[in-house]
Amino acid sequence: MVVSVAPKATPPGECPQCWQHAHDRSIHRRLRAREDCPQCVDHMRNGCPNLVPKKPSRWW
Description:
The structure is a single chain. This protein is mainly α. It contains two helices and no strands. It has helices at residues 16-23, 38-46. It is elongated, with a radius of gyration of 15 Å. It starts with 15 loop residues before the first helix and ends in a 14-residue tail after the last helix. The model has no long low-confidence stretch (mean pLDDT 80).
């Protein structure tokens, strides 16, 4: 029996792609041993362009 788990929502301040690639094993399952994920390599080189905005702090 295969149980499908819904992907977790990206928390504020995190990149949706980085978050999904870190928590969804099925994305990297198709890669061979010692093969790098092209999307992850691109993110490491160019940074994360699409961060989920954080909620404004109400402390002050």
